[in-house]
């Protein structure tokens, strides 16, 4: 955990981007999991992901052209379909015989739902249905066609581990999130007590009532409750539910490589009147997330010296769980056995 670089987990689905970022007939080049990925959407609207390297001379395919069906390399005009299979080599002489189907740039399994494009990074070339995570999780209360009302992304110059530990840290808000509109104050810390239990590939802060004095929660109705889940490979899902409306907040932590990360925050809401407030809400989200981004960059200066770090019980327990989950995922894979969640049910207490 004190290292600048993190081990990247494979055999899992990662959020590549919101659906809205990939337009019909267009492509989007990204580095994800230390691999060059070219996302796209064909003429029928179906999302795909191929490796962004031409197998002929190694030039990135993003410099070529996409006609809605095939990607053409800019160097020698080789064409690849949306499954990554070569379909044309212009320089082929009429007397040459080449089996194009045996040439591929490589492709990644893709699932698109709830306004997100998920990409699967295999452990050893397996299909998702043959792996340990057949499909990505669904968000509660919303249909597959429901897109997020709000979405932002900030690049974090830190490993996925430090991004995850910073975002799940329950005690930093009073010192990091110090905007005038946020109620936290380091001089007015209050005791907190939450019950936690293991859940699928992670743990959950068990559903509990939210303070009735908070005006924002009253918009959802009476008896507003929340549940927060953390799960591999880097998801935080908060489900806030009232008797009138519900909101789901999703934070995704997707590695660019071993020491750079994309952090996204997105919200789904059943209320139809969010639209006019989007510019203000998006600004506040960016301010809040940028405070987390800046502090992990500052932390990096100290981590350069590879110090021995100290974690304390309760306040840092979730950080320990994160590292234990990663270790168990890798160990269970190498031993070809079922994943055994190391998290145990317990109550945590801290001041914040």
TrEMBL record:
CDD domains in UniProt: Rieske_RO_Alpha_N (cd03469)
Domain of life according to the entry: Bacteria
Q: Which GO terms describe its molecular function?
A: 2 iron, 2 sulfur cluster binding; metal ion binding; oxidoreductase activity
Q: Which InterPro entries match?
A: Cholesterol_7-desaturase (IPR050584), Rieske_2Fe-2S (IPR017941), Rieske_2Fe-2S_sf (IPR036922), VanA_C_cat (IPR044043)
Classification via PROSITE patterns:
RIESKE
Which residue numbers delimit the Rieske domain?
A: 14-119
Name the coiled-coil region(s). none
Alphabetic keyword roster: 2Fe-2S, Iron, Iron-sulfur, Metal-binding, Oxidoreductase
Q: Looking at the keywords, is Metal-binding present?
A: yes
Can the keyword Iron be found in this entry's annotation? Answer: yes
- The protein depicted here goes by the name Rieske 2Fe-2S domain-containing protein
Q: What's the source species for this entry?
A: Stappia sediminis
